[in-house]
Design brief:
This protein is of the alpha/beta class. It is 27% helix and 27% strand. It starts with a strand and ends in a 6-residue tail after the last helix. InterPro entries: G_CP_dom, NA-bd_OB-fold, P-loop_NTPase, Ribosome_biogen_GTPase_RsgA, RsgA_GTPase_dom, RsgA_N.
Length: 292
């Protein structure tokens, strides 16, 4: 028996990396009976049954997991959002941030295509300051400029990283810029739709600069399926850290008097648009139809 990490799942096979070797494994039938699916990123115990082949016997406890894309034990998510083509949208970025925070994954924000949006740099530097004030790492970059690569390498070392973002923002292009030998398939922007075509078909962890990076199809759903209204505030760090200062315990930060969050918005300590998104997401979760 050996231990390793699943680095790729494809056509019913799980490719497990252990001590520098990769084994093509099948999952045991017991997983199917228990409705358990091994995920890329899982630490597993497996039995070697032939040359570079084996059977997964046990899936170790997960630190976290995502459903779409299906991946486990992620340290950080680099959220890639483009300045243009598709145009930047704070609501979309905050949706990604809330989803990532809800899974206890550390977010990093990359604004791409800044070379095309140079005339708008002041606006994006303002957004950068807003998100840095919350505590996030935020980088403005163009994938054409190789001087950004040392910065990218710094984030990837010793981490398992998911690259997240809507189609067309340049996720795969970004990976190719980091390591041209990957020759990953990149998609073209569909001018008529204003978004990219999905080109990445399976989930795989790629070794990169002392870390592992998931090249995934991105988040195919940005709905808050598993999040409750009581958990939402914890997914906004600037709200979470001030909640104890509200007069009423269990304050929703919407209609209650003497709310520390609303006061912080008035004082300019919390960005207006961040609070507006909190209220919008709160109402969305509240109105969500129950799933059975």
């Amino acid at each position: 028996m050996a231990k390793g990490r699943i680095i790729k799942a494809l056509s019913g096979f799980y490719y497990v990396e252990s001590n520098g070797e990769v084994y093509q494994c099948k999952g045991r039938g017991v997983f199917r009976k228990k409705n358990i699916t091994p995920l890329v990123g899982d630490m597993v115990t497996f039995d070697v049954s032939g040359e570079k082949e084996g059977y997964i016997l046990e899936i170790h406890e997960r630190e976290n997991e995502l459903v779409r894309p299906p991946i486990a034990n992620i340290d950080q998510a680099i959220i890639v959002t483009s300045a243009v083509e598709p145009n930047f949208n704070t609501t979309l970025l905050d949706r990604f941030l809330v989803l990532v925070e809800s899974k206890l994954i550390q977010p990093v924000i990359f604004f791409t295509k800044m070379d095309i949006a140079e005339q708008d740099r002041d606006r994006f530097e303002s957004y950068q300051r807003d998100y840095q004030k919350i505590g996030y790492d935020v980088e403005l970059l163009s994938v054409k400029h190789t001087d950004h690569l040392s910065m990218l390498k710094r984030y990837l070392k010793d981490k398992i990283t998911v690259i997240a973002g809507q189609s067309g923002v340049g996720k795969t292009t970004l990976l190719n810029a980091i390591d041209p030998t990957l020759a990953l398939k990149t998609g073209e922007i569909s001018a008529s739709l204003g978004r990219g075509r999905h080109t990445t078909r399976h989930v795989e962890l790629l070794p990169m600069f002392g870390g592992l990076v998931a090249d995934t199809p991105g988040f195919s759903s940005l709905e808050f399926q598993d999040l409750t209204v009581s958990e939402l505030a914890d997914c906004f760090p600037e709200i979470k850290q001030r909640t104890a200062n509200c007069k009423f315990r269990g304050c929703t930060h919407i209609k209650e008097p003497k709310c520390a969050i609303k006061q912080a918005v008035e004082n300019g300590e919390i960005a207006d648009y961040r609070y507006e998104h909190y209220v919008r997401f709160y109402e969305e979760i509240k109105l969500r139809k129950p799933r059975y």
